[in-house]
């Protein structure tokens, strides 16, 4: 089968068809989305070598599960050992021996087929289009902000970053009727959020007048400079929710965090059931973010496009 493999360089290769084992399903990949984490892996993040990709819409073609067989599915990306002390405490996505699809110690979905744990798979309702469904994983990550911090309409909320994840977070906030300021570099992208958006766009320069103003700042720039900007915008005793991952270790003003009693909150993967519900209810339409769809034969070109685009999708058919 064809697969996009990173081994220090990005290559489209022919590799053996994966063989499933009990508790897993063989999935024919239909669509797979490129996210910032994939791009960061090619720059050295996580030191991962193997098949990339973790945003999936596929069809189960072989499984022991009658519930999954023949169904369109997406996948959660974390595969815990369930035996370590953290797993036994219920912290499964923080497992000491965790494997992560297409990111750490487990093959990804930029391939024609993938073998995935049954318990990670979620069936997509028939009413949800495949193009919407491929956004389930990043939309779940966006929805995790509601699990990470209490949000209410009366709070002053700022979201920094108008890239792929930032715009999905903005959509999720609007779906929950949370008005917010969206700080970014591309004012035209506000139009991608729909007429019911609760976002008001601020340029980076305009945001400077909001010094220590916001109760909650969500940082989703994908850039280490975003944290410094978040520190400038959050009020004393406010909260910063961190959504970005990237290669390298950022530097920031720790003294400000201590003196102003700012709470930093890491926020990672999120609830798939809530993401699927938003897609099914139609409160979020992420397909407006798609700029290009490439066949897997053009996957190297797709990665180059993803470096300067919003959402790029790889299709297998």
How would you characterize this protein structure?
- It holds the Pfam family Glu_dehyd_C.
- Belongs to the zinc-containing alcohol dehydrogenase family.
- It comes from Mesotoga prima MesG1.Ag.4.2.
- Its cofactor is Zn(2+).
- Residues 141-315 form the Glucose dehydrogenase C-terminal domain.
- This protein is α/β, with parallel strands linked by helices and 317 residues long.
- The chain folds into two domains: 2-140 and 270-315, Medium-chain alcohol dehydrogenases, catalytic domain (Quinone Oxidoreductase, Chain A, domain 1), CATH 3.90.180; 145-266, Rossmann fold.
- The protein is 24% helix and 30% strand.
- It has eleven helices and 19 strands.
- Strands 3, 5, 6, 10, 11, 18 and 19 form a seven-stranded mixed sheet that branches.
- Helix 8 links the parallel strand 15 (214-219) and strand 16 (234-242).
- Helix 4 crosses helix 10.
- The chain starts with a strand and ends with a strand.
């Amino acid at each position: 089968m064809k697969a996009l493999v990173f081994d220090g360089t990005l290559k489209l290769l022919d590799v053996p068809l994966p063989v499933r084992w009990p508790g897993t399903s063989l999935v024919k990949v239909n669509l797979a989305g490129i996210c910032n984490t994939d791009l960061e892996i090619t720059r050295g993040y996580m030191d991962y070598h193997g098949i990339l990709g973790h945003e999936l819409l596929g069809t189960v073609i072989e499984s022991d599960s009658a519930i999954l067989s023949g169904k369109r599915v997406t996948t959660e990306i974390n595969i815990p050992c369930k035996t370590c002390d953290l797993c036994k405490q219920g912290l499964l996505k923080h497992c000491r021996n965790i494997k992560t699809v297409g990111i750490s110690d487990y093959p990804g979905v930029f391939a024609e087929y993938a073998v995935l744990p049954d318990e990670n798979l979620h069936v997509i309702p028939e009413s949800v289009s495949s193009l919407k469904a491929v956004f389930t994983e990043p939309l779940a990550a966006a929805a995790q902000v509601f699990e990470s911090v209490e949000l209410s309409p009366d709070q002053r909320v700022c979201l920094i970053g108008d890239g792929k994840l930032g715009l999905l977070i903005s959509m999720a906030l609007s779906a929950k009727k949370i008005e917010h300021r969206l700080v970014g570099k591309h004012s035209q992208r506000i139009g991608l959020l729909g007429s019911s958006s609760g976002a008001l766009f601020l340029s980076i320069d305009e945001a400077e007048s909001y010094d220590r103003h916001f109760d909650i700042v969500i940082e989703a720039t994908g850039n280490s400079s975003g944290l410094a900007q978040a520190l400038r915008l959050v009020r004393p005793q406010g909260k910063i929710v961190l959504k970005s991952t990237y290669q390298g270790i950022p530097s920031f003003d720790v003294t400000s965090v201590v003196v102003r009693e700012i709470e930093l909150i890491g926020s990672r993967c999120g609830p798939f059931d809530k993401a699927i519900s938003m897609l099914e209810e139609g409160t979020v339409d992420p397909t407006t973010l798609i700029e290009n769809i490439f066949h897997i034969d053009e996957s190297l070109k797709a990665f180059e496009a993803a470096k300067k685009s919003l959402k790029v999708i790889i299709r297998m058919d």
